[in-house]
Amino acid sequence: MRPGSLRQARWHRHVNAVAPTDAMRAWLTEGGSLTARLMRHSAAFRVQKLHQRSALCLSDEAQKIGMARPGRVWEREVLLRCDGEPVVFAHTVVPLSASASDWPLFGHLGERSLGSTLFYDPLVRRGELEFARLRAGHPLVQRAHAALGGAEDTIYYARRCLYRRHQGTLLVTEVFLPSVINLIAAPTLKNVK
After folding, report:
1. What's the farthest any 2 CA atoms get from each other in the chain?
2. What's the CA gap between 129 and 141, in Å, rounded?
3. Domain 9-181 annotated CATH 3.30.750.24
4. What is the mean pLDDT of the chain?
5. 3-class SS at 135?
6. Residue 16 CB burial class (10 angstroms; 0-12, 13-18, ≥19)
7. Which of 49, 79, 99, 114 could form a disulfide with 86 if both were Cys (CB 3.0 to 4.6 A apart)?
8. What pTM, to 2 d.p., does this model score?
9. For the chain, what are the domain ranges?
10. What are phi and psi of 18, to 5 degrees?
11. Using CB atoms within 10 A of its CB, is residue 140 exposed (0-12), middle (13-18) or buried (19+)?
């Protein structure tokens, strides 16, 4: 494999193209809010904001968000933690041309979940999920490793989705860390009579 190819991702419209395990498939294909599902699988869910700033988007993100070539975007990166354990590295890009009316809360999320705003805003239109396997040389895997203070050399499964609101686009990429498959749904309490 050429060194440059480690930095690229091949995105697919069907999860079978990335051949995940059954446990990982269930996480990748979650149709609702990932935040809500993670909350159901932990006693303490937390968004750890790594940064939110202007940055150069990845080459495969530019066209997806409507840019002719890679350029500067608003970038947000977070770790999603369940009971203290990091389980997902999330990366979001928004074109600098997006207005405050397109994404009114994006600049003020802090450590709140982006998903909690996207899934409950009736003006947001969600695109289709795309899936990829990312190798250690991919920029998002390198950033996840840096945030975690190093990590094992493995293949990571990822998904991404394009959201639209008014004229604005927003691309969310979620890199699932191996620890996510160890999560078990919290039991629900039923009324006992």
Report:
1. 64
2. 19
3. no
4. 87
5. coil
6. exposed
7. 79
8. 0.90
9. 9-181
10. -105, 0
11. buried
| Pairing of the two strands 45-56 and 85-95 | unpaired
Residue 78: phi and psi, rounded to 5, are: -140, 160
What residues does 156 pair with on adjacent strands?
A: 134
- Range name among 10-24, 28-42, 98-112 with the lowest pLDDT average: 98-112
Predicted confidence band at 150 (pLDDT cuts at 50, 70, 90)? confident
Closest CA to 140 of 91, 193, 83: 91
Give the model's pLDDT for residue 192. Answer: 39
Element (H, E) at 140: helix 139-148
CB atoms within 10 A of CB 178: 14
Nearest CA-CA partner of 64 in 129, 115, 16 = 129
List the structure tokens of 162: 């394009």
Rounded CA separation 173/99 (Å): 21
